[in-house]
What does this fold into?
Amino acid sequence: MTKSPPAPPALDPVRWLNDQPYLLLSLTALFWAGNIVLARHVGDHVPPIMLTTVRWFGTFLILLPFAWPHLKRDWPALRAHLPLMLLLSAIGFAFNNAISYWALQYTQALNALLIQSSGPLFVALWSLVLFGVRLTGAQLAGITISLAGVLTIILRGDFGALAGIAFNKGDVMFASSLVSFGLYSALIPRRPVTHQLSLISFTTGCGALLLVPFSVWEFSTGATLKFDSLTFATLAYVLIFPSTLAYLFFNRGIALIGPNRAAPFFHLVPVFGSAMAILLLGEQPRLFHLVGYLLVLAGVLIASRRASAGV
It folds into this structure.
């Protein structure tokens, strides 16, 4: 009697997703695009520093039950690299998010999207300055092409509009958040070898603690949360998608393909933001949207090719 062949192992969706860097980074961009759109909409409901503090404390509490066994095991490695871990907490969670939320109270949508598209350049600059990692020709071409696509979308196909853009203090603040996150992205591959839940729970918890004094100061100025359905919906979205899931996905994506190949996925943020405006705000799609999307997609594909790895 012949034995039947063993049944193939069941597909584990979580394990499968964990090994899909392009999907992980694309979902990260989608979640962050929603975060930017929502933050501009609820600026008068949720003060920026308080929103960031609640965001990271909430994320830490959500992750802690799952991360605790890994944190206990990884604590010696985390403690041995404590200065780096505190720096990652400060630049990737505390400063970066608080200043970007704050900036969105002053800057226009066009300016914010334009500045957002410069994110890959800051990643490349920090990687070069700190570690001598140079962009390959394919990475530079991909970033340039996807940047052209972003500009096509946000300028509505009229590149002459660049001459009419006036930058204000909100623009400078928003740009500083990208400088900070570029440094975070360049440093992530140098983090201690730990489980990703250990890394994200440690940095979110420390980031929230670093923000507490500034949140107290903000409250003393009269800025308070408005407890209504919009505020609670905002906090729910921010805690789950652009915080918990996005940072897990982003860190894993960088671990798989490196910061320079991952950087062009920043350009998907304004692309997704434009699509959300069409779907949620009733804006009409135009030819420049299609042209911009195709350019961004081409740039991301070129820059993220395995052969273009410069890390």
The chain has a mean pLDDT of 84. The first helix runs from residue 13 to 18. The radius of gyration is 20 Å.
